[in-house]
Amino acid sequence: MSTSSALDTSAPADSSAAPAIEATDLVKQYGDFTAVNNISFSVTRGESFGLLGPNGAGKSTTMRMIAAVSSRTSGTMYVSGIDPQAEGPRVRARLGVIPQQDNLDEDLTVRENLIMYGRYFGLPRKYLLAKADELLEFAQLTHKAKARVEDLSGGMKRRLTIARALINEPEILLLDEPTTGLDPQARHVLWDRLFRLKETGTTLVLTTHHMEEAEQLCDRLIVVDHGEIMAEGSPAGLIREHSTREVLELRFGMDRNPEIAAALETELGNREGLGYSHIEVLPDRLLVYADDAEAALEAIHADGRRPMTSLIRRSSLEDVFLRLTGRTLVD
Hints:
Residues 21-251 form the ABC transporter domain. One of its GO terms (biological process) is response to antibiotic. GO terms for molecular function: ATP binding; ATP hydrolysis activity. It is found in: Cell membrane. This protein is 35% helix and 24% strand. The radius of gyration is 23 Å and the shape is elongated. The strands form three sheets. Strands 5-6-7-3-8-9 form a six-stranded mixed beta sheet, sandwiched between helices. Strands 11-12-10-13 form a four-stranded antiparallel beta sheet, with helices on one face. A three-stranded antiparallel beta sheet has the order 2-1-4. A hairpin with a 4-residue loop joins β11 and β12 (286-290). It is of the alpha/beta class. α4 (110-119) crosses α5. The protein folds into two domains: 3-232, Rossmann fold (3-Layer(aba) Sandwich); 244-314, 2-Layer Sandwich (Alpha-Beta Plaits).
């Protein structure tokens, strides 16, 4: 495919009614390497949309194209009805960006970070003084307004980075791994702030490795691997489509797990009413996927097998993610 002919920069017919983000046949190549391979997706205004995938899947590359800091090789992309490749400054003025790593100015105070960042958008100082106070309250950092950034905890720095990204009242907030490195308490505080933004109509687009985060925050998401979309839908919808209702975790001992898994495949596969799907063999345990995991466990006991431990849980987005992208570590 010719890059010059495939790159389309024509605007939609009615940009005022356009989705928050719309990508069609999007491709990004670096020499012979294809980072994003012909993906298409649309984000509705006010939606919380997620991009899930292992390292190197193309998530951050896609975010950079949305943010108008990286050009696409081919395909179309519109952000609020505007082509970011043709009108980058107009697009960036509508965005708030939360990078993977906090890039706050540690020589300034918390409040000064907000005011200085707002000046980059040409916003008047009078407006920024009031807006900074509003955002500090939103981020629960009012008591730290005069503190230097270096004195903040990791969770506080992350909340300040989000507050800073809101200084220009963006239509769309891009969050690249927003809670990486945070402890559970700080993560939940951050989720609460993001829920509040969503309720005000801000469109959220995030990448994350935390499956619980994706289930909590995303209305809809795409699972990306090797630059391609593997699945798309709501978290609950993806679980229904790609997994069973429940998962039975069994431990028979690392030396016995593979042998027992082969036997269980036949035994459970011949029983009706379990909603049995398949078994995964992990180094330390077996995962039995079935709609009725308790009935599956009873059947295993009836056949005289006694696992060292057993656990029944609901199927999760992590089960879907690992089934679609595999369990091999990607560096």
